[in-house]
Design goal:
This protein is an alpha+beta fold. The chain has 10 helices and 13 strands. A hairpin with a 6-residue loop joins β11 and β12. α2 packs antiparallel against α3, α4 packs antiparallel against α9 and α7 packs across α9. The relative contact order is 0.16.
């Protein structure tokens, strides 16, 4: 048996407690984490993977310890280590609404704009962005098709709770299934030269059919998004009711992050997109940044919100002329032990969005197939 210092045991218990809060207590859902929380969970959970494998190696000398890449691996399968790997890629098995782990949800009738909504500049800019979105023609996405998004970016690869080290810039492609019915095969990520399936985890002893996830906030499809209310207040009320946070976390920030995930890697009807932008203007603490730079160097105007707990600011970047969405980045808003103010924590630029007929199919291949 391995001897472990008492301090390390306490730290490990705390980290395991955090992991348990993320594991399903009932029906499972897929959840896309906001960039800052994704990197944080990657830091914590990759350490748990390493510790778990070290113990397995010590207990069974004949079994070699596999070398797990530090790259995201979004395959959701049974077992805490596999779930941790999925979390590192920004995908996790969500917690059922009825869990008893201390997470809280907004009351259905609770006001989400008690703080008065965003700054005047942010409200004006978001209204302009919403107007552009409303005028944009969007081709509906069929049930059997896939939403394709190609982006370029980088994230923090520094050690857990240590100085931030921005990783190498690389390309990422994602394909999201648009099937309305419950699925376990959510889509695919192609990153760093490898394909990783996005799959719903099936806990031991669970029928895969019972673990399948229908369309919803955590697995959005075009048809599901089209069915959402286009009244900004009604839409925001739904978001707050569906968003759960742990003690000490900022629900307004989590809602801001969830909207950011939706506008960043989805295709939705123009009226729905406009409603999300107008709803964002009602979130307290939302501000405007006159000049921000995305992952490929494009300058734009940003809609931002600061996470005061972690000293970071998440910025959605838009083209200053067309107001088209360019990308997102998270920067440190103040000096911390991990980084100085202005340090980039993660950054991503959307290069292409399209609708394709198959998972793994690129838009050019679809156009060539159509001509044939």
């Amino acid at each position: 048996m391995n001897a472990t210092p008492a301090g390390s045991e306490q730290e490990e218990r705390e980290e395991l407690d955090e992991l348990r809060r993320l594991l399903p207590a009932g029906p499972v859902e897929r959840q896309v984490l906001t960039p800052g929380r994704r990197s944080h969970h990657k830091d914590v959970l990759m350490q748990l993977i390493d510790r778990d494998q070290e113990r397995n190696h010590a207990d069974s000398p004949v079994r070699p310890r596999p070398r797990l890449p530090r790259l995201p691996r979004p395959a959701l399968v049974a077992g805490s280590v596999a779930v941790a790997v999925a979390l590192a890629a920004g995908l996790t098995v969500g917690i059922n609404a009825g869990r008893g782990d201390g997470g809280t949800a907004a009351r259905p009738g609770a006001s989400s704009t008690a703080g008065g909504g965003g700054s005047r500049g942010a409200v004006v800019t978001l209204d302009r962005i919403a107007a552009v979105a409303l005028r944009t023609d969007v081709e509906p996405v069929g049930d059997g098709q896939f939403v394709y998004v190609r982006s370029r970016g980088a994230g923090n690869e520094g050690v857990f709770d240590g100085p931030v080290v921005l990783g190498k810039m690389h390309e990422r492609q994602v394909w999201f299934s648009q099937r309305q019915g419950p699925v376990t095969d959510v889509g695919l990520i192609r990153e760093s030269g490898q394909d990783w399936p996005i799959e719903v985890g099936v806990p031991d002893g669970t029928d895969p059919k019972d673990a399948a996830v229908p369309a919803g906030f955590d697995r959005p499809t075009y048809a599901w998004l089209a069915a959402l209310p286009t009244d900004p207040d009604a839409l925001l009320k739904l978001l707050y009711a569906d968003t759960r946070v742990e003690e000490g976390e900022d629900r307004d920030q989590e809602v801001f992050g969830r909207i950011g995930d939706l506008i960043g890697e989805q295709i939705m009807p123009s009226a729905t997109a406009a409603a999300f932008y107008k709803a964002t203007a009602r979130i307290p603490g939302v501000t405007e940044v006159p000049d921000a730079v995305d992952a490929v160097g494009r300058h734009g105007i940003a809609i931002a919100r600061e996470d005061t707990r972690h000293g970071t600011r998440t910025e959605w970047i838009f083209d200053p002329g067309t107001l088209d969405y360019l990308g997102v980045r998270t920067v440190f808003s103040r000096d911390t032990e991990r980084a100085e103010a202005g340090t980039v924590y993660d950054t991503s630029a959307v290069l292409e969005r399209a609708v394709v007929d198959k998972s793994g199919q690129e838009p050019g291949a679809r156009r060539r197939a159509g001509r044939g």
